[in-house]
Write a structure and sequence with these properties.
Oligomer: single chain
Bound molecules: zinc ion
Order of helices and strands: HHHHEEEHEHHHEEHHEHEHH
Largest sheet: 6 strands, mixed
Structural class: alpha/beta
Radius of gyration: 33 Å
Shape: globular
CATH superfamily of the largest domain: Zn-dependent exopeptidases
Strand order of the largest sheet: 4-1-5-8-6-7
CATH topology of the largest domain: Aminopeptidase
CATH class of the largest domain: Alpha Beta
Distance between the termini: 69 Å
Amino acid sequence: MSNNQPQSRPNRGAPKTNPTRTYSQTKRPARSKAEIARRIFFAKCIIVFCMLFVLGGGVYLLSRSGLFKSKSSNAGGTALSTVTFADQTPAATEGSSDTQPSTLPDDLTGYTVILDPGHSGEDTGCGWPLNSSEIEEKDITLKIVNAMEEDLISRGAKVYVTRKTDDTVGIYYRMAEVHMICMDIAKERGTLPFSAEKEQDLRQKCEKIKEINEWQKFSTEGMGFMAGFGANEDLKALMDMEAQMTDVVFVSIHINSTGDESEYEIKHGAAVHYADDEYISSPSHDEGGEPRHDPYYGRNNELNSKFAQMLYDTYVQDFPEMVSYSAQQSHLPSAFAVIREQGLVGTLFEVGFITNPHDRDFFYDDEKLKATAISLDDAIEAYFKSLKGEPAATA
Ligand SMILES: [Zn+2]
């Protein structure tokens, strides 16, 4: 501020005798109307501009807060909104999904899928013609899983597979592998729920199970801490950890068959199995194996059921010819080891019957197998996105 400034105020009403002021005072009335009108106009413009700026900023901040998104999230199930388990993972948060949900429809960044191609090596699974190797389950499942893996990676997911080759790996090898993968993931996140010593102990036990099951596929000894009825302390600790990891799913791919020739034409279509605590722990599933432990009740039963149903629904929507011959088969609780001996949300998905001529044509067609993989991946993606509006599992 200069010293001249204060003078203008007392001079505003100064007498006309002051020549230096006269000029200005005589001129001022002449142009003041236009000047004032212009200034008022500019002032109005600035006010309007500021209001628009403030309003625009407010709308932007509100949209960032998610308040405007909850509607689309509820309606479509794909938009991302409030804090969920997925948002807590670094990758999911980093994915700027809050700002660009519609531009990233296929973004599975931050999610993990463990794929298990059923059977391998000497354990061929079912085949056709019976007792021949013209077409075998282990090859079909590997083709589907390979295509699923490639597609899921392109969508941003992290993918693990229990086998990449035809080497024989037993069921408990696969389960030990799943437990080790889950320990890796938890360790990376800093959420491993036991001590370093316990982790070391569990890893050694898993390695031993894998070693035995590389060559002796149905060894009782090879079950290790997974042997018997119920869950021992080691298995329980791992399953409790895995049940918290709802941004990881497990999918085992299989092909069905029937040994009864009269049913070849009847039995067809997909069958989807999921783990359920009550079902697995019921006396009818206590096969009397030793050792005996308390039944385990920590699985994500509802999510298991939901995930299985979503896989089936998406698949038969894409391939109506693969609708199951039996409504029950389309969604059934089961006690298969691959879904029973770990705590992740998971399913054993039977794509169709190799003994049914129509389903079999499907399995000879590599394009159909690839399309099956895409369909199942679509379901996996839809499942993960459906969880976004729900709280994290607290099993
Ligand atoms: Zn199978």
